[in-house]
Design brief:
- The complex is a heterodimer of chains A (333) and B (240).
- Chain A has helices at 40-44, 70-85, 111-121, 133-136, 143-160, 177-182, 206-211, 220-230, 242-247, 250-254, 272-280, 291-300, 305-308, 317-329; strands spanning 3-5, 55-63, 89-98, 128-130, 199-205, 232-237, 259-264.
- With 333 residues, chain A is an alpha/beta fold.
- Chain A has a seven-stranded mixed β-sheet.
- In chain A, helix 3 (111-121) packs antiparallel against helix 12.
- Chain A is globular, with a radius of gyration of 22 Å.
- In chain B, helix 1 links the parallel strand 1 and strand 2.
- The longest helix of chain B is centred in the N-terminal third of the chain and has 14 residues, at 69-82.
- Chain B is globular and about 50 Å long.
- The chains are: A alpha/beta (333), B alpha/beta (240).
- At the A-B interface, helix 2 and helix 11 of A face loops of B.
- Chain B: Keywords: ATP-binding, Mitochondrion, NAD, Nucleotide-binding, Nucleotidyltransferase, Pyridine nucleotide biosynthesis, Transferase.
- Chain B: Its EC number is 2.7.7.1, 2.7.7.18.
- Chain B: This is Nicotinamide-nucleotide adenylyltransferase.
- Chain B: One of its GO terms (cellular component) is mitochondrial matrix.
Chain lengths: 333, 240
């Protein structure tokens, strides 16, 4: 599958002398005539064998997961393949962070069910895990704060256990948040790994990217922080308008090198909304969600007309918060 | 088969689907990238382990050579009419799902009201995607008389597919137009365009196909080195 990485310019032609280069690990050497050439391996950007040159990445997905579907899970696989294939990153973990009930979205069922379904869905995964921190907060938490929370956690982990690989060397063992909480070893100033602390990046679909334009849904400073300090990996349908969307936003444009657009060639329309609709209509959702999730939904009769009516008439938490904060700062508005 | 096997009422309200059968095509079909039939049968069996109504029949793939679709359908019909107890498990099958339809009143699943086997036999229908419907137009791929027999005598259940216009294909063909009452177009409200072609390509490039195929099938592909560009698994090594 092709991908559009905004750090790349036009296609690289081996042997072509270029006066400006981009993203090369080191500049070319000069040959005897003083002409600046480039080593073939730099031209072809071969994967460095030394993995410590790669930045470790954790993919974080925020959302309702109401319910989690195969599409959500595919986002992670596509994001991981893409980032690993750049040769610059090594994806070490994927985190699913379901939103808290205080989000007040229409049809949002209680968090504990959504957490359990996400855990069932990732039971057979060595690198995906579900995190409950966000859903356990009393109030709704802005996405940028969730990113910050996880980035800080990684920094803490890195300080405490600099030699401890976060995941890939220990198949089957996922770090649980409560384990980390109980960890009481004192923080020692250790020499950080050559890659530094793993970086958290926000994994999403094009819908989240485009929601940046919804009035009062996002604070501009939050969007800026997300793309400037963390980064976005956005899985989009091939031929979608994501690139145009980035072009039309000054903030996104400025930080485009930190926004990775990944093409999704398989049209995957499995949205949670459609799953809930199919369930209300007695249609099969088999093979659209993991079997365990489908069984759990059936067993607990989670989605019906009543559940879809939850939060009807209630304003979405981010809208409520952003509008009221705007009023407070502009009392005459 | 127990009543729990029965599916919810179809939108038509006329049918009750009681079984689905997958019949992988014979190796001598000669299609590009076709791996050995015993693999394809094994993978289908793994995929259907958790299904209580769809199953695989390897009969067609085990024959000496490829046979036309309509011949497989005929064979099934013939053997069904001979079988008093209608043991569906022993019927040979087709390279697409087949839906066996009962014309009994389906609203009431009460076993005491289920018609006996000697009453109306379930009907056999060819299940396919809209892309197959389109292939009816390909010169020399299908015999006209076979197409007619399929739609006239058996019936077709055609699932929509992105980029295809099944209604248009029907209108463009005199045979299909004539028997359009026997062609049921099933819509796919949630598009999920997982083509095997894409899967093979992704595998060849070492990309993940997790959540597109059942884990058991992915493991089988890896263990047998199928669909990789150099004949061996080039994936990341784990089903992670």
């Amino acid at each position: 599958m092709t991908s559009r990485n905004h750090t790349q310019g036009s296609a690289w032609t081996p042997g072509l002398k270029q006066s400006s280069c981009f993203s090369l690990p080191s500049p070319g050497t000069r040959d005897s005539s003083g002409v600046r050439g480039f080593h073939l391996d730099h031209q072809l950007q071969l994967l460095p064998m030394d993995t410590s040159e790669k930045t470790e990445v954790v993919l974080l997905a925020c959302g309702s997961f109401n319910p989690i579907t195969n599409m959500h899970l595919r986002l992670f696989e596509l994001g991981k393949d893409y980032m690993n294939a750049t040769g610059k990153y090594r994806v070490i973990k994927g985190i699913i962070s379901p939103v808290g009930d205080a989000y007040k979205k229409k049809g949002l069922i209680p968090a504990h069910h959504r957490i359990i379904m996400a855990e069932l869905a990732t039971k057979n995964s060595h690198w995906l895990e579900v995190d409950t921190w966000e859903s356990l907060q009393k109030e709704w938490v802005e996405t940028v704060k969730v990113l910050r929370h996880h980035q800080e956690k990684l920094a803490t982990d890195s300080c405490d256990h600099p030699q401890r690989s976060l995941l890939m060397d220990r198949p089957g063992r996922k770090r649980k948040w409560d384990e980390q909480k109980q960890d009481s070893s004192p923080k020692k100033p250790q020499e950080p790994k050559s890659t530094g602390v793993p970086r958290v990046k926000l994994l999403c679909g094009a819908d989240l990217l485009e929601s940046f334009n919804v009035p009062n849904l996002w604070k501009t400073e939050d969007i800026t922080q997300i793309v400037a300090n963390y980064g976005l990996i956005c899985i989009t349908r091939a031929g979608s308008d994501a690139q145009k969307f980035i072009y039309e936003s000054d903030v996104l444009w400025r930080h485009q090198s930190n926004i990775h657009l990944v093409d999704e060639w398989i049209t995957n329309d499995i949205s949670s909304t459609k799953i809930r609709r199919a369930l209300r209509r007695g249609q099969s959702i088999r093979y659209l969600v993991p079997d365990l999730v489908q069984e759990y939904i059936e067993k607990h009769d989670l989605y019906n007309s009543e559940s879809e009516d939850r939060n009807v008439g209630v304003i979405l938490a981010p809208l409520q918060r952003n509008i009221s904060e705007a009023k407070h700062s502009n009392p005459t508005a | 088969m127990s009543p729990s096997l029965t599916q919810k009422p179809s939108p038509t309200g006329m049918y009750q689907v009681i079984e689905g059968i997958i019949s992988p095509v014979n190796d001598s079909y000669g299609k590009k990238d076709l791996v050995a039939s015993h693999h394809r049968v094994a993978m289908a069996q793994l995929a259907l382990q958790t299904s209580d109504w769809i199953r695989v029949d390897p009969w067609e793939s085990e024959q000496a050579q490829w046979m036309e679709t309509v011949k497989v359908l005929r064979l099934i019909e013939r053997s069904r009419s001979k079988t008093a107890d209608y043991p569906v498990k022993h019927l040979p099958l087709h390279h697409h799902n087949q839906l066996l339809k009962s014309s009994a009143q389906m609203e009431d699943p009460d076993p005491s009201k289920t018609p006996s086997a000697s009453a109306a036999l379930p009907e056999l229908k060819l299940l396919c995607g809209a892309d197959v419907l389109k292939t009816f137009q390909t010169p020399n791929l299908w015999k006209d008389e076979h197409i007619q027999e399929i739609v006239e005598k058996f019936g077709l259940v055609c699932v929509s597919r992105r980029g295809h216009d099944p209604k248009g294909y029907i209108l463009d063909s005199p045979i299909l137009r004539q028997f359009q009452h026997n062609i049921h177009l099933a819509r796919e409200p949630i598009q999920n365009e997982i083509s095997a072609t894409y899967i093979r390509k992704a595998l060849g490039q070492g990309q993940s196909v997790k959540y597109l195929l059942p884990d058991t099938v992915i493991a089988y592909i890896r263990d047998h080195g199928l669909y990789s560009s150099d004949g061996s698994w080039t994936g990341k090594g784990k089903i992670s």
